[in-house]
Hints:
The protein is of the alpha/beta class.
Amino acid sequence: MYGRAMTSAISTTVENGIATIGVDRAPVNALPPGDWAELRDAVAAASADLDVRSIVIEGGKGRFCAGADIRVLTEPQDDPAMMLTIVADAAQAIRNCRVPVIAAIDGPSHGGGLELALACDIRIASPEATFSASGINMGLVASVQSLVHAVGDTRARLMLFTGDRFDAKLAESWGLISVVDEQPFGAAMAIAESIARKAPLAVEANKTALASAAEMDGDKHRELMTELFGTLAGTEDHQEAINAFLEKRPRNFTRK
Length: 256
């Protein structure tokens, strides 16, 4: 086990193949640019660590991320789109991450926080969690493409044009979140532990295939799947999975 605090707001702990990235900027985890940059770097560092098999991002009890610290926007800016860019960079680091990233959401996921959640592969929320595409409430635009991909055009328009808050039950029915659970962090960790027990090369290949599914036509994606399948079929980990299944014993994967 090792832990490393990156700032007063962002911390990373790795144990048993799971990296937990904590966000702690009271009272609602509204993050200034420096914290977004630290979050981006924390995800990239965890992705580069081949001992990491899965990642959980959590914001603490009753919180997740209320987006960007709006007070920053009252200050003179050389780049008016700076805040959009730094949030987008953090979200892209999650999408580019080698392993699955799970969001444990126990409170507001608004604005940049919604973009953060949408970038994650799996989203677990408590019944108290709320979701808002709140850019329009500040006279801005954000989260359009990622929201359309998550909930579809019609529902994305409702969220983007109103900036209203939507509860976890509705968010689950729309497919915005994966699961509603009273203990989202515990549920997220259980999923992370399950992923960490799987063959890591296969997990990574599945993430690659998923990332490409919306961008490739059917024939191209089939070619990618054939390539990935063929590569994995020749690995020692594939043979280990078969042997362990037949011998009814735990698997021991080595990334080979």
